[in-house]
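Milestone M4 deliverable, item 7.
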Amino acid sequence: MAAGLIANDTPVLRGLAQQLAEIAALPVQQERIRQWAALNALRPERPMVSIDQIPWHEMNVDDELTLRCEDPFHRELETTLRRQLYQWRHMPADLVLMPRIEVPKVIHDDGWGVRITEETLATDAGNDIVSHSFVDQVQTSEDAARIRTPNVWLEEAATAEREARAHEIFDGILEVLMQGLLPSYELWDEIVQLRNPEVTLFDLADRPEFMMEVAQRWSTAHLEWLDRLEAQGLLGRDQMWIHCTGAFSDEVPADGYDAARPRASDLWTYGMAQIFGSVSAAMHAEFELPFAQAWYGRFGLGYYGCCDPLHNKIDIIRQIPNVRKISISPWAKLELAAERIAGDFVMSRKPSPTPLAMDPLDLAASEADVRRTLEACEASGTPVELILKDISTLRYEPQRLWAWEQLVMGIVNQQ
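Output delivered:
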């Protein structure tokens, strides 16, 4: 690519960075950091709200998201900046913007010995939400024995080049944070992808010893992978978000923190076992607890759950160390979940995005859902955050999401 074209990218990026820096300097940013930290300490000032997993391919208005840069690396940075600015303008909720740009380090591994094999089917070429059909890769103990801990390494030259280029563009405007990996716990979600949901569920019942063997090997490989990331200083730091929610806290990083070599204990993690939404609480505890306890025990704070209904499994989650937030999905029994959480965790409530895809738009259903959540949490003394995510479509009408944000922020600001 011609040097002149790349040089033309710099004014674009610096202009966007200057906008971000001005927004990041607003007093409301520190106010929201304080509010997120209070919530995460179980001393909420009010319910907090976040919007994530947005169908960005449907959101462009007046070319606000249209990329102008030519260089692929610059386009990555531009995408990040444009999305942050767009969200701030139209649907900020409790978004926090910091005067920095995060640039991922170039980190490689040589594989886990087995890998996901799948076919996908898309209904919208612009949407990355697709249907998956997985081909079973772990049918026998011999297959399971192939699972191994990957070697990991930093590609130093490529990382240094990205860092130098970022500094050249952003110095004097934004901090450049070279970000490492922020690992999550998705043991059973990954096993489901290595096999497939139907086979996994049948084998949990029919071949429990084999499934425990697979889980043990996968867990051991991931814990050893975490060791290697720590030893090489490849973990990330200064988390702002954990699974779509604010991660600001006075409890992490831990004592002895070294920004050059973060430890798991300095970080939040998040995890889930969504396939266990289809099994009993007893089976969930048997096949999940030992592995979740080993993983979460390494970290400072944790978030547990995703789309799975967890209202009848709060007692299991209580046995996982360092969990601070529990996901309560649209499929959970809300009042029962609030009663059982009873103020000991943050309820990370996931309002259903379905009303935003209805024709016509059904904001009344969204309002009823939010008010019901707040009433249940107030009755039980449970801290709550409202996390709108998994938004697969807005029917190419981004204003639907803007309207949801205005509605919900109006409600929580009355609390």
